[in-house]
Amino acid sequence: MDRAPEPGTSEPPPPPEAGPVVYPDAHGWTFYGPEQGAPREAYGVTEDEGGNLWVAGGEEGLFLLRPGADTFERFTMDDGLRPYGYLKNGKAPVGPKYLKVISVAGGPAGTVFVGYQGHPDCENNFYVKGAKDPNIYKSGDADKVTLTATGIHVVHYDISSGPGVIGEEAGGREKICSILRIAWDKKHGNLWFGANHAFAWGDPDYQGNPTCNGQRECSGVLEHTHPYITAKDASGHQFRLTDAYYGIAVRPDGDVWFGGCNRSTRFRFMTVKVPRDFELARKQSENRSAIKNRIDVWPDKVDEVGIPGPGDRVDDNVSGMALMPDGSVWVSSFAWGVARMDSKGVVQQYALGTGGDRFVSALARDSSDNSVWAGHRWGGGLTRLKGDTTLRYSEALGPLAYHPVWDIQSVGSGTERRLLVAFGTDESGRPGAIGIYRAE
Predict the structure, then answer these.
(1) d(C-alpha 215, C-alpha 307), whole Å
(2) pLDDT digits over 189-244, tens only?
(3) What is the CATH number of the domain that holds 272?
(4) Structural domain contains residue 350
(5) Backbone phi, then psi, for 389, in 5-degree steps?
(6) DSSP states of 15-61 as a string?
(7) What is the pTM of this model?
(8) Domain range spanning residue 416?
(9) Cα dihedral angle (78, 121, 248, 171), rounded to 10 degrees?
(10) Is residue 333 part of a domain?
(11) Is 276 left (phi over 0), alpha (psi -120 to 50) or beta?
């Protein structure tokens, strides 16, 4: 369909019959699929400062489209990707390794930061007496991947703390493993990992140290923090509630908005009394006195003071965040649509909260006009909030409107702006695609 989408509220076209995806000929769009060497399932898409397009291709690996090329290259563990950490002697855990690339963030020219999914139970295995398996608890985490003349150079971020680093966990800490989103803050020299359980900081200039054993002076990471609350299960047992930090939005001052399954927070890493004091910033999100900095975007029926039980909770299930020039931030949810918070974290507006619209799996600010793009999980493709107008792109996307949108990133500015969209496989197993939008 060779025309720009029109505003409206029309539903996407009926789901296609089984068979291969026919990529639409839509105005302003270019699509890449397996025919061009792209992965069947695109979990993330980004561009580095050199114009290289990188795609998180799940179990197929990491994919690259160089400027001017029309076919993707593929990288796996055979090329040096390292979806697992180091033992204290610098060696790899013994056993089969699991590769699933689920997030990417472009860095300097020729460099991309890559996030992996860990093994099932990677968050808990380290703490199981007599059953610790480093091939499980050391799985996942992140790499810095840089192009070389002959392939790639890989530096691994083992996002953990070694013996003696954390007072109350003197034996070490291994909780973070699946890296859901990554953000590179070039201005302040910070790298941010949104993950299962919590979020963490990385040094974007880290050169690696396999024998560091999780000591802060050589690990290249600071981990971790989370705006957790105390909740209770059906029996009344109390526990810390925290998970799935898909939302990351870096503020101009270097502080970062993080959004998770249960709460969001402003992590005051750069504006604490001594900038870059991770522990002091952590306290300003976690301490009991920091209750106002644990934001319940879609409020529970019982607040954290009342200790909510299973029937009291309305889990936010944050899927993304997008910072706006006025300091406000849009927050999307896998379950509840989108909300807009002011610069202090007070919710001012809700939108897309009904029907299929409310299942928003990705979010981005359009650098060309400050509109906001929402990608949907269960049909509908893309919705664009532009002032008081809602633009729906389901018709333009054709069959791709029934594929989940796992990531949206806006790169470039002005007439050079490009919107990058990662479409996953649909429920019938038809392959996804990479979409690049260059029109208005």
Answers:
(1) 35
(2) 999 999 999 999 999 999 999 999 999 999 999 999 999 999 999 999 999 999 99
(3) 2.130.10
(4) yes
(5) -105, 140
(6) PPPSS-------TTEEEE-GGGT--SS--EEEE-TT--EEEE-BTT-
(7) 0.95
(8) 1-15+228-440
(9) -100
(10) yes
(11) left
